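thought: fold this chain, then report.
action: predict
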Amino acid sequence: METAAGRPGVPDGFDRLWTPHRMAYIGGENKPPDAGAGEGCPFCRVPAGDDAEGLVVARGRSAYVVLNLYPYNTGHLLVCPHRHVADYTDLTEEETHEVAALTRTAMRVLRAVARPAGFNLGMNQGEVAGAGIAAHLHQHVVPRWLGDANFLPIVGRSRALPELLADTRERLAAAWPTEG
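observation:
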């Protein structure tokens, strides 16, 4: 009996999900070439532009909230200080408080808009710890639902996201509380 193993394009019993858009992440696109602030750092560049274009959900005095370009789940947010700083222990008191406050608000807004069952929160400090952009600190706020860790990431090395990033950003920004 002849098998299809090793013959491209021949069915072999596995369904495949092609995700060529992930090559930008795998190849390091948009990753700053060095640890310098400014144009080389996307977390420094994003807040200088338009909120919708940059996927900024909310802004504070010393930090802001933005959708992750390479989300684990729909609504995966990043809370970033405006200042280019790599280590959590180097944040000022104001930055520390605002990152925490924005993280709390992000969780509340995500609960109201998307009704997740839980969250993963975290900061990867350093490249060895998994930080894709280690030079600019960012807090991950990842909403989680029962069954969201299905076969796709494991077998298909893909994530199924039911909504475009721009649409998610619009819904979250509209639900974000305004001061005053």
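thought: worth noting. The beta strands are 56-59, 63-67, 77-81, 118-122, 139-144.
final: tokens above.
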